[in-house]
Amino acid sequence: MNVDEDEDELYSSTQKQNPTPKKSTRISLRRVNQLSSAKITALTTTLKRLKKQEPTTKSVVFSQFTSFLDLLAPALTRANIQWLRFDGSMAQKERAKVLNEFSNRPKFTILLLSLRAGGVGLNLTCAKRVYMMDPWWSFAVEAQAIDRVHRMGQTEEVEVKRFIVEGSIEEKMLKVQERKKFIASSLGMMSDEEKKMQRIEDIKELLS
């Protein structure tokens, strides 16, 4: 989607969870006062297109901020997109009802899910699209949430998209994520002092 070539950009990186090459797409957006507004516009456009092309495909939208989900819900309603919501404030009975409706009722194709709530023992294999609306400090938290969709019992290819505002602190957070993944793979080779220095470098990266 190319809205305005000369304005600030928000882009989504797309990753398919089956062993297929990673691809990235860029989405140009008009300048807006709040980054959340740009993301809502981009996501709503993406979901409307998906609804037209694949009306039965179910999607899970993750955000670490329930306040962002509060803004997103009415935008989806205005776009005539049926949605459900699952977050940590809900009672157990209500959570079970939401999960049952999302799995079994075709009209509900979108589940809005807080990142933390999405990392705990859920089975969302009825979905095959995942949208990450903001990066988390640790990729492990995101990976755990994504695994709710891409887990044993999933028979479809799962596509994951991350919406990141270009030139914002979110890009720096992605760099920190990549560094942490590398460190995690080589922890046995690092001294305590080296780990401490790496944490300091992470903070410097975000503040620069």
Automatic annotation (TrEMBL):
<dbReference type="Pfam" id="PF00271">
    <property type="entry name" value="Helicase_C"/>
</dbReference>
<dbReference type="GO" id="GO:0016787">
    <property type="term" value="F:hydrolase activity"/>
</dbReference>
<keyword id="KW-0067">ATP-binding</keyword>
<dbReference type="GO" id="GO:0008094">
    <property type="term" value="F:ATP-dependent activity, acting on DNA"/>
</dbReference>
<keyword id="KW-0547">Nucleotide-binding</keyword>
<feature type="domain" description="Helicase C-terminal">
    <location>
        <begin position="42"/>
        <end position="198"/>
    </location>
</feature>
<dbReference type="InterPro" id="IPR050628">
    <property type="entry name" value="SNF2_RAD54_helicase_TF"/>
</dbReference>
<dbReference type="GO" id="GO:0005634">
    <property type="term" value="C:nucleus"/>
</dbReference>
<dbReference type="InterPro" id="IPR027417">
    <property type="entry name" value="P-loop_NTPase"/>
</dbReference>
<feature type="region of interest" description="Disordered">
    <location>
        <begin position="1"/>
        <end position="26"/>
    </location>
</feature>
<dbReference type="GO" id="GO:0005524">
    <property type="term" value="F:ATP binding"/>
</dbReference>
<dbReference type="InterPro" id="IPR049730">
    <property type="entry name" value="SNF2/RAD54-like_C"/>
</dbReference>
<dbReference type="InterPro" id="IPR001650">
    <property type="entry name" value="Helicase_C-like"/>
</dbReference>
<keyword id="KW-0378">Hydrolase</keyword>
<feature type="compositionally biased region" description="Polar residues">
    <location>
        <begin position="11"/>
        <end position="22"/>
    </location>
</feature>
<feature type="compositionally biased region" description="Acidic residues">
    <location>
        <begin position="1"/>
        <end position="10"/>
    </location>
</feature>
<protein>
    <recommendedName>
        <fullName>Helicase C-terminal domain-containing protein</fullName>
    </recommendedName>
</protein>
<dbReference type="GO" id="GO:0006281">
    <property type="term" value="P:DNA repair"/>
</dbReference>
